[in-house]
Amino acid sequence: MGSTNSNLVEEHKSGHISWQSPANIALIKYWGKYPVQLPMNPSLSFVLNNSVVKISVDYTHSTGNEFRLASFTLNGQPNHVFASRISGYMQALIPFFPFLSHTILNINSHSSFPHSAGIASSAAAFSALALCICSMEQEVGGKDAGGKTTTEDNFFRKASYMARLGSGSACRSVYGGMVVWGKVRELPGSSDEVATTLDKGKVNPVFSTLRDAILIVDDGRKEVSSSAGHAMMQHHPYRATRIKQATANMRRILQALTEGNTEVFAEVVEEEALSLHSLMMSSSPGFILMRPNTLYLIDRIRNFREQSGLELCFTLDAGPNIHLLYFEKDQQQIGAFIRESLLTLCKQGRWIDDAMGDGPVRILEGR
Ligand code: PMV
After folding, report:
1. In the predicted model, what is the mean pLDDT of residues 28-52?
2. Residue 26 Cβ < 6 Å to ligand 1
3. Which residues contact 124 (CB under 8 A, 6 or more apart)?
4. How confident is the model at residue 34 (pLDDT cuts 50, 70, 90)?
5. Structural domain tally of the chain?
């Protein structure tokens, strides 16, 4: 993936690029990694439709030999914490995009969901940012890293690789629908370095209308970050077992997706969510990201499933919020269930009504 094309564009003076990328929710969880951001086990997620981050990059050629992030705003406000993370990330990308070493950037980002919604925005943000840099490379040079014309396929592979370096799960947000990251024996072309879309032929149409109601239990800052959690998997007593479990669950869910088996799908998804949190609790030191209302919600969801016979299940990210997964055909009944039985357990009754989406889009307006 490295670039030798160091002479990209003396003549590029300035430009504007904008991409919008979705957050994603994992069904098979990535937890634990090797340097540099390579997953300990394969994961599978789907991207969301409404929970998106838009990044706009204004670039100018710097006559001095310097890279500079001149400004960074989040929803219209300067944000120094993110600015310094993004600046560090960009510096790390210079070997892949040498033109960055003489470029000044001004970046504005907008998130469709409140930063405090408890959804990991980093996957959406790093995906959008990586796509912007890859588009910039095309715009300033019209070539890819190998000096060949960039095909669409290469473009997204490179974006996925670069997004991964910012935040592991971000590599899955450069594609639409169901996305796999990590080498899976049954999926030729799958890789630890980049994500790949799950071939539509492998996903039964019953899963095409998957929806996600994100129930906000708590929107506070996490006590233990994902990076710290991944690091604790290094010497985790259940590490080897977890790798085996994730590999087996990947196999089971792939089969369920192909066969349209929503029962096995729900079983695997919930097992993965609870295993993720069990791994956190059994880390050293152990930590708990669920809250009492997370458990009450799980209880109500399982009871409702039993009573109603509807197809629904839950998953959890590295946080206390519940992602309630269900299908469009049941939207009315599930909507009523959410309003009547679940919102009292959500912080200020908040939830986000989302669904599986088609992936990132380049925003061309305002050029
Ligand atoms: O990409 P990171 O480093 O924020 O890790 C994400 C980990 C989980 O969200 C818990 C699982 C996943 O696969 O997205």
Report:
1. 97
2. yes
3. 21, 22, 23, 24, 51, 52, 53, 111, 170, 173
4. very high
5. 2
Alpha-carbon gap, residue 222 to 173, rounded angstroms: 22
Q: Is 167 in the pocket of ligand 1 (CB under 6 A)?
A: yes
**Amino acid at position 38, single letter:** L
Domain that holds residue 293: 203-355
0.90 surpassed by pTM: yes
* Run of H or E including 54: strand 43-61
**Residue 256 to residues 45, 76, 251, 303, 319, Cα–Cα distance (Å):** 14, 44, 9, 23, 26
Query: Same domain, yes or no, for 161 and 257?
Result: no
Among 25, 29, 43, 171, residue to substitute to test ligand 1 (most atoms within 8 Å of Cβ): 29
Q: Are 306 and 299 within 8 A, CB to CB?
A: no
Mean pLDDT of the chain: 92
Q: Which of 31-35, 60-64, 130-134 has the lowest mean pLDDT?
A: 60-64
Is residue 171 in some structural domain?
yes
